[in-house]
Amino acid sequence: MEERRNQPGFENSPTKWRYNISKSFFTFWKTVKMYGEGNERIDEEIAGFRKALNFFFREKNEVSILFDGIDIMVDKVRTRGRRKDDKYFEDIYDLFLSLCMSGIVFKRGVSDQDILSFFRVLGKFPVGREPKIQTYEKFISDLPELDMIKTFSYDHEESGALPIYTPAQSLRKVYRDLASEYLEYKKMIEMAEIIPLRIVERNVQELISISTENRSGKIHNFILFLSSIQSYKGSFKGSSAVTRTFLSVLTALNLGFDRMVAKRTGVSAYFQYLSRSLDKGYMALSRMDEFNYSRIEAALNSSFRITDFTEEGIRNKKCSSGTLSGEILKVVSYYDNITKKWPERVGCKGPLLSRPEALRQVLKNVKNGIFKKEIAEAFINVTGVYPCGSLLKTKDNELVISGGRFKSFSDESTVFVLDNNMKIREIRTMKADSIVDILGSAGIIYPPELLATILTSYIGKDDKEKNG
Amino acid sequence: MLYIGKKRELVNYFKNIPPDKKQSLYRGVRTIISMLAKISKMTELHSINDKIFDELTETMKQNLDIIHNTLPYFSVSTKKVGFYYQEKRIQLFDDNERKFSNIFLTNKIKDIYFIKGITENELRKFFTVIKETLHYTLLDYDFNTKLWDYGITYIGTISDSDTGVIEPWTKEGFGSEFVPWSPEKISSLSSRSFSDLPDIASEFDNVGKTKESSFVEWVEKRGRDYTVQKYLDKATSIIHVDPGNPQSIKLTGKICEYGIRNLQDGDFLSGVVYINTIINMAKELQTTNKELFDSIKNVLTRLTGENFINKTFEAAQTMDEAQIKSFCELLTLISTKNFELIFLKIVDIKSKEIRLPALEAIAKNFKDIILAEKLIRSDKWYVVRNFVYLLRFVYDERLLPFVKEVMNHEVRQIRVEAARVLSLYNADDNLPYWEKAVFSPDEEVRLLAVENLVKVTGMESKPILNEIFRPANRDKFNLTDYERYIDRILESRRKEFFDLPGSLIFSSNKELRLITLKCLNKIEDPFMISSQLIRRIKSKDFLTLDKNEIELILGLVKGQNTLDMLDALSFVFKLRGGFFNRKKYYNFKKTIFDHMKNKSSPNIKKWIEKAAAEGDKETKNIIKGR
Fold first, then answer.
1. In whole angstroms, what is the distance from residue B200 CA to residue B209 CA?
2. Is A360 on the interface with B (CB under 8 A)?
């Protein structure tokens, strides 16, 4: 039976190209090894390898082929032989093992000459030997200076030398993983590829563990501030996916739901806008090999759109799957949508509200019977009355950004006091009744350096700590 | 899975332990890792519920305890070339090592740690994680995700995702196509008035202070089965639109596989939801899409296959109470075929709480008389016993000869069970059996015999019952027997039998009299034994009875008996002793009047009044409480 990756319509499938580059890598190496560089087949090999590299360079600055001791990972995705023709994978494993090499990275701009030079040296080394670090060292010394091709060894004597993250650093990693990968996942869905769902699950689990086991209010505030970020690395949807994930997990925990329900909620939140095509999202999450409830519930929530959760949308449409996560997401997604400025391509045209004003609107919609009272109130309990990221003014006319949870109007929390240049002048604890909302700040775009400074303040000390 | 803050604490703690102390544990640590490598192999060969894991769990726990007595925490590094403890290679000399260590490489795990406090239950869960991760290794399954899902906290890992170089936040991450608002624009924004705050604050006054019961109910109804049902509803609607579409065919396949996997993993609750959906889909597709229908039919056929049945019962060994109902529902579905295998599998289930409802669940599918003959004559007594229990729920006259065949079985439980089954059938038809059963050595059988004898329509059973109460047979029964027999006779409302217990109030055995009276007091209107009661009151013995027995007789002054019994009791108004012993009956009379004074019946009140008017001085004083 013909592999799907070779069927028409899969020309732009990353899977297909991951296999192509693996095979091309193998044949190129073998050709050089068997016939040397002065052979007409070399030109074909270079052309084939170049074509494969160019596919990845369309969107990325580098493409990696890594070996973890079991499999190779092309462009960070585990790639294995699945059919008879794919036996060459075994030879690639032998090559990496013999050279004690853990990976190769080709950077955008690599020349054909560089590639050929690299393979020329690679072809000189025998395979099937006991892995020795000296072999790798010899290989490196034989290689000419190649700026656009990098290789890495593995040191079989060493592991775990890097420091363990603090909870705040771990949260940062969770945020980055989830926000950065979102668009990749969406692309993979459209290409009917298998997405690494476990990465999302693992990050949601980590978030839940940190939320439930860390008693520091600062960590809670950090999660809330991360939830207020408009876009990360230019992606609004990726950032929104994290906002939904973070806020819905905290809401589920606030409602007293157990950690498995919180996990289902978090995974559902992340994949809520996975695909406009019901079938594609549904199929992607209905993974036969990795059955679990989180994915089942996520599948149920996966075909909504951002535009469903406007004021008009929630009144007129059925904006919930009816599951626990569906009802939580109805509130969270509505809040996320009406407080963020969206690019035109998203098609969200609803009026924007400042964050505190959005909370009042959530309460109004409880009265209108649109939101479940307990869920909406748990959500407000999580965010506090001046949600993180809100631009506020003090009685002394100072501009401040909310950096913590004000449980009520008589409670106090952290604010970032701004100077005239929109830089942080001071981090202060203030009472909620001494600050007020700025209605015109709805959809505010903060300067990126300001956001970086604020976020660093949540983990600044940890980053300086030497725990290695 | 421990949260990262705790992991840091433990790792730092371990770093500060003197190297000598850590190194002294090398042999013990090697034993643990060797065992795990073996266990990983075992998980591929045996079910995790297999007894073999009981021993392994116990040994593993003992080995861990030995290490933890020295240090409460230890960790083993996992590298491409094997396991290391304190930079020393752990030589396992085991073929399984490679496959086991692949779990850690695939999941980018650098260290695996064990903390003091591991329970056997947690170890067992850990073996399940190993099994599942090994099983799915080729599918990129995640070890850490599983550890978290199973709530394992005393065994954990330090993975790639837990460590790394510090990458601070930089402004590049937060730029977008929107131009940030200028300081001027932001500064020019006007704020809400502080005077608005009290009104706004009042809107938030009651936030989160109430949780209505309707919400709790709403949440309870949205369990895992609800999600599964919703998922399936949506899936079937996708399939329904275009059953011939390759996506629909694929989705159908997935639903079927999910269903089977859930059941085999012991998740009967959702598995049954799946299977019911599949059955409904098959009904719909039978006429609209033959290809899809056939594929579903194949899956449904698999459910009755030996392989599936074996795996399902393995999974059932450890299921919790919440799953039993669904498990039974599944058995009802699949026992239409391969009944014998399913029955024998149920017989092997140790837990009565699962076995009995399971037998009941499959009973409705039992129709095979030849199989009945085979099972009733099985040389394994427990097979016979469970089969006879199953027959409780199968009403089929053709099976009666088999039941009667084991009425005198050497195993008591079978005799009792057979009597219970026979009780379901017409008592008249089985009178000869019940006649004999009255004197059975088995207490339960004797009781069943009485229960059935009172059901016999005519009066043929009365002489048999009479035999029970004959003084000559008293030794054959104990007092509890009599109490139960009397209760059964009275419960039958067969008044024609009431004189049988009625006669026992004259018994020379005081205990028997008391038990009889207690039973009689349970009935609302003891008029059927009125004449016996009056005779008892008028007997000379009545004056000599103990207080409690008198009170039990007085308790029967109710219903249609009341006036006749009061009349019979009137002799006490003027009852007194002889010249030398005037107060001879004082206590007797006091017992009667004190008891009757507490009654609310108007007739009894009148009787007391009459006693006060007509009685002697002693009577009057007793009534007045002097």
1. 17
2. yes
CA distances from B396 to B363, B367, B368 (A): 11, 9, 11
B30/B148 same-domain check = yes
- Do B20 and B156 lie in a common domain? yes
Question: Of B77-81, B229-233, B351-355, B608-612, where does mean pLDDT reach its minimum?
Answer: B77-81
Looking at beta carbons, which residues of chain A come within 8 Å of B5?
Answer: 166-167, 210, 213-214
Mark yes or no for CB contact A166/B228 under 8 Å.
no
Same domain, B143 and B276: no
Distance from CA of B52 to the nearest CA of A (A): 27
A441 touches chain B (CB under 8 A): yes
- The reply to whether B27 and B130 lie within a common domain is yes
Token pair listed for B29 = 């640590």
When CB atoms are compared, the residue of B11, B174, B186 closest to A399 is: B186
Nearest to B79 among A159, A170, A341 (CB): A159
Residues of B in contact with A292 (CB under 8 A): 149
Read off the tokens for B370: 């030849």
Q: Do B132 and B256 sit in the same domain of this protein? A: no
Do B228 and B144 sit in the same domain of this protein? no
Q: Determine contact, residues B597/B589, Cβ cutoff 8 Å.
A: no
CB B536, CB B525: distance < 8 Å: no
Q: Are residues B140 and B255 in the same domain?
A: no
Domain boundary, last residue among B273, B303, B333: B303
What residue numbers bound the domain in which B75 lies?
4-162
- Amino acid identity, residue B345? K
- Is B372 domain-assigned? no
Contact at CB, A409 and B257, closer than 8 angstroms: no
Nearest alpha carbon to residue A439 among A343, A372, A357, A339: A357
Model pTM score: 0.71
Among B284, B303, B322, give the residue marking a domain's end.
B303
* Confidence class for position B199, pLDDT limits 50, 70, 90: very high
- ipTM confidence: 0.75
Q: In what order do the strands lie in the sheet with A435-437?
A: A424-431, A412-418, A399-402, A391-394, A435-437
* Order of strands across the sheet that contains B82-85: B88-89, B82-85, B73-79, B109-115, B155-159
Which uninterrupted H or E stretch holds B565? helix B562-569
pLDDT tens track for B113-131: 999 999 999 999 999 999 8
Whether chain A has a CB inside 8 Å of the CB on B518: the answer is no
Give the closest of B6, B163, B227 to A323, CB-based: B227
Residue A255 tokens, joined: 């409602």
Residue B61 lies in a domain: yes
Residue B15 lies in a domain: yes
Number of compact structural domains in chain B:
3
Q: Does A216 touch chain B (CB under 8 A)?
A: no
In a domain, B528, yes or no: yes
A40 min Cα distance to partner chain B (Å): 39
Geometric angle at alpha carbon A105, from A103 and A110, rounded to 5°: 150
Residue pairs spanning A and B at CB distance below 8 A: 267
- Counting residues of chain A whose pLDDT is more than 90, the rounded percentage is 54
A210 at the B interface (CB within 8 A)? yes
Q: Is the domain of B11 the same as that of B158? A: yes
Q: Is the dihedral of CA B558, B560, B561, B566 positive or negative?
A: positive
